[in-house]
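Handout, tutorial session.
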Amino acid sequence: MIHGFLRVLSALAVKGFVSFVIQDLPRHKGVNAMMPNFSYVRPKSLKDAVKQLSSDGSGVLAGGTDLLGCLRDRVFESKKLVSITDLAELRGIKKAANNGLRIGALTTVTELAESKFVLEQYPALSQAAAEVASPQLRNQGTMGGNLCQKPRC
């Protein structure tokens, strides 16, 4: 049921409904395994994202594979999630100065693993990215999120 609920919320966000509050759902047998309350915004520019993130209790949402579990498990709290998924300037893989590599924070692990440029110039990086987690997590998880995740072990 919760997965269907989250799919509906995601569809609403995609259709331009940019701000809503997710409410706690009823507890099952006294166990709080549901998400806490938070607001959700989906800015359309980097400038607006920075502005939204400047308020207390704000957190960044990109792939969400680690963040949503941390919120559900009360590892930390966030009063507002700022989705940066629409910010194209944070995506992509490009050659950088001095033969370096620029990997955007919103680049997924799959995009890194399958990049022709990375495969040709950095084959070990491509291979490592292809071995991380499950295909579902590689498709959803972002490089920025992987660098910023909160270890829970």
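The second record follows below. Compare its token runs with those of the first.
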Amino acid sequence: MTKLQPIITYPWTAPGEYCEQIVALGGTYDECGLPAVCTRRVNGSEPLRLREILANSVNLGAVRVLLAVGPQGFIDFARKLGLTSPMQPDLSLGLGAYETQPLELCAAYATFAAGGIYQKPTLITRIVGPDGADLLLPPPPEPTRVMDEADAY
């Protein structure tokens, strides 16, 4: 699985602005209401669910989702999740062609675990001076909701 596949597929699992593009691409849905993506499996050709694309690291499926969402739409969402590494709006994003920092990825994935709230990582939580007293640190940035809690689940 490319490191960005869970982020690329997020708009397909959440209701909202991408729904019409999803219906136009396939129109078939699984028992949970998630769109099925038609792509080739090793053993033949049949629809794949998003969970199968992620579990089996199907790059073609990720690229097809990226095509529906639009590379720039993905980059805009990735920026909300704290991914600041350089990325160009092209389909190679679905293949993991661009470098990302591990800390950025951790913060992005943590946003899903935090119910859709992004918190910029804080690496230093305490500094003790030579006299043993704590030095004042700037306050951490406020957390930001970037997706609905139900959608993050």
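Points raised in discussion: The longest strand covers residues 36-41.
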